[in-house]
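Reading is simple: each integer encodes one residue's backbone shape. An example follows:

___
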Amino acid sequence: MANTPDLVLWGVGTSRTVRAHWALAELGLAYETRAIGPRTGETKTAEYTRLNPRQKVPLLQDGDFCIGESAAIVAYLSRTYSSPERALIPEERQPYAKWLEWCFFIVTELDSTSLYVMRRHGANALGHIYGVAPEVTAAAGDYFREQLRHVEVALADGRTFLMGDQFTSADILLTTCLDWAIAYDVGICDNARPYLERIRERPGYRQGKIANQPPAPGEPIIRRTG
């Protein structure tokens, strides 16, 4: 699919905004970045609130269409802009269903139920807003490690990616959670380590990480990629 000039991605600097930047890089799409961050006041402007009343990042504009939630953005990009040369989603019915299963598992059991609970209640994260709760964060870390056993089993047969030989957006979601877990000293399973090393070598991963960096002081918040 040819590059489109109508893509605008709002948001940088988080483990969720990087997912959208990475997917756009994997698909070779040109886009404009509005490099705003969470909890900076930038998501509460009248302009942004009209686009996204939830006042969260990331948000993708595709022409007149807007979609939020990082996993939904990645799924939309995967479905809309994958090509035979750059496909982030399985085409056949049953592999597609397994892809959905992995995506839902990652964003619920690994992200929101585990890692984000740690972020909300960690002393060095958002605990000053939501309350520091060491017992809660410890339990969330234990739950993350428990759920990660499903990833351990899936990667035990030597497959390259979650869906076998095909890199998909489920790998984007999983990798961001693994990076997040390492940053939080949660620990990851043995089979995830060589998997993560392979993923980090992908040009799309590196490009997405660069595009996700917050702007330096005085730097314009509008960037163009591609």
Summary: The chain has two domains: 7-87+207-225, 93-202.
